[in-house]
Amino acid sequence: MEIALKIAGGQFNPIELNFIRFLIGGLALLPFTILYLRKNNVKITGSDWARIALTGFVIVVLSMTLYQLSIGMTTASVIAIMLSANPIFGLIIGFVFLKEKLSRTNVLALILTLIGLLIIINPFHLTGAMGIVLGLISSIIFGLYGVMSRVNGGKIGLNGLSMTCLAFLFGSGELGILMGISHIPAVAKAIPSGFAEFANIPFFKGVTLQNLPLLLYISVLVTGVAFGLYFVSMEKVGILQASLIFLVKPALAPVLALFVLGEAMKVNTIVGIVVILFGSLITLMGEKIAYGVMAIFKRNNPEAYPEVDELEVVKDKIENSELAKRRKAAEVAVHDKLEAKREGQEVPSEN
Questions:
Q1: Which DSSP string corresponds to 108-127?
Q2: Among residues 136, 184, 201, 328, which is most buried (max CB within 10 A)?
């Protein structure tokens, strides 16, 4: 995604590109959303629309605008890594505001992720500082959006795909209003010369037949389909497992950026990627690894852990329950009756 946005960024105003991609991405998901609303008879109230509008503002106007600006200020691979840390920020936000459980493995993953980000940023030899800061803020806000989308979608009765679609449409509409305000002469003159991209922001300037395929790829596949599937998978398998997609980005993006854009990978970037990948693996598989190690330790030290396997305990309880005893007694009674009848006359065998 970052590579495609980097290529397209040179042909469009960054705010304009953000507006176009989320507008088209939302429209691409709209037929599926309408079908879902009709099939499940979902009624959206005024307060529900306000929730959707706020969610759209957070993702489109705030997070993705900062994200698009950051890509133009620093390398695409670094920004991809920044965005990949958003599930960790989502865990923190869920813990602080929703009182969601944060295990020790999640805390360890958080620490490793932050260490990896610091290694990549390399504050002692900082280059492209503004782009990195904007990318980090964008990732934090994206984590907030993930929490808001889940909570608000659940309260309204929308699935992940429908909530994504409506948030994109509302967010692009809100961004479009701000773009329109930038055309007011007084506002355009008040914007400093160093921020010229915020004055007289075009809506569809530069769209040609040559760049239309790239624009549709970014809008429909990268934005609409990818975001929608991410939140659908989050509903099916949970936020941690769905975040597996972000585990691929830190490893894949720098390699693609190297071959497509010619962006060289620095040593600190590679080290930071490894640390973040390790932190993400702990987030996704930490509990399994912990229980696996405990199981091995118990097998090798039975004296230290004399307790029986939980499955064996459950099995023993079932076998010795009152219902099991009654069933055994009934089987014995039936067997005795069959034996008595067999002695008096020929009857079918008990089998």
A1: HHHHHHHHHHHHHH-GGG-S
A2: 201
